[in-house]
Amino acid sequence: MAYNRVLQWSVMTRSWWLYDAENQCAFKSARKIVDYLQGKHKPIYHPLSDIGDHVVVINTKLVAMRDDRWRKFTYSHHTGYAGGFSRASAWRLHDMDPTKVMHKACYQRIKGNLLRPNIMRRLHLFPDDNVPDEIMANISDQIQQIQIVPKQLEDYSQLERDNFPQIFEWPEKEMMPKKKQPELLQTEDT
Amino acid sequence: MNVIQQVYSISRPVQQLLRYTCISSYRHFTTSTTKHRREIIEKTEGNTTVIEGNIIPVDHSKLLKPQTVEGNTVACPLCRLDLHPKLKYTDVLILRQFLTPEGEQLPKKISGLCYKQHREVKNLIRQAYRAGLLSEYQFPEGHPRRSQRSTWKWKKYNVYFEEEDKFRF
Ligand SMILES: [Zn+2]
């Protein structure tokens, strides 16, 4: 069985994975990525055996958050000195560095011990899909996205729209709602 | 005798009745095309010109879902469908049917929805605009309705919604 032999090789080696973060929740996708970084997707996992894989995440600038989280979710930091506390909302942090939200989501997901910095070194984040060829040459497989990217109305063709079943029919003698007309300003009268 | 003197001589309930008739006469008389499903046709035969407003026939009989169950009409078009899973904000082709050409929601009088479904569709349409799925509809001035391009700084990035999320202003 050649296939089983290849599986055994891939367990022992450090393979590279690709993940597209476009329109994906940052926290939900971090939960999945961290398993690959630590090597939890392998059958021989043990925290002290160093068998984690590399993950390359692209399009981190287009990452999505739920409902109001861009405004409400905050990141806080303390320098250690008096008056050194600072806090920024998620959209402000994303303005400064478009890879920071994804980095922090993965960092907070991993258990805080001395292995964490080495695990985080295997995560490669890119704001766009411009990845250097040296990194792209290593990649062997892709991690599946967790959410379905929603389709815009512009993406549907005219034939698809016409053949879509209609829910109700307009009443024949009913009026359309009135259009809003701009209010006239009375400036020249006076 | 003057008209005003006549009116003052009449008792109060009759005065109110007269007022109502005056107001209502404004409403019934229209010259513009308020009913958008009619077509205006002009015919000239010699000196006489005839202007007709004919109803445009629209045949949806093949695509339309059945509106009756055992001969009885069911109240609301969405309750009648009974969708599983529930209607989401990403189902743009269904939400599009509840919109005017300007991109606003149709009133209940036309769509025939009950109050509960009307409120939910209103919520879903706003979520779809917020996520930038209905950016095809624009204001008459040319402003895109997509709120991601708005001046609010936290609205320029991608968002998604779950089932229990209610859109806040
Ligand atoms: Zn209903």
Automatic annotation (TrEMBL), chain A:
Keyword Endoplasmic reticulum part of the UniProt annotation: no
Subcellular location: Mitochondrion
Keywords: Mitochondrion, Ribonucleoprotein, Ribosomal protein
SUPFAM superfamilies with a match to the protein in the record: Ribosomal protein L13 (SSF52161)
Gene3D superfamilies: Ribosomal protein L13
Similarity annotation: Belongs to the universal ribosomal protein uL13 family.
Protein name from the UniProt record: Large ribosomal subunit protein uL13m
From TrEMBL, chain B:
One Pfam family cited in the UniProt record for this chain: Ribosomal_S18
GO biological process terms, semicolon-separated: mitochondrial translation
Entry keyword set: Ribonucleoprotein, Ribosomal protein
Molecular-function GO terms, alphabetical: small ribosomal subunit rRNA binding; structural constituent of ribosome
GO CC terms in record: mitochondrial small ribosomal subunit
InterPro entries on file: Ribosomal_bS18, Ribosomal_bS18_sf
Protein name: RP-S18
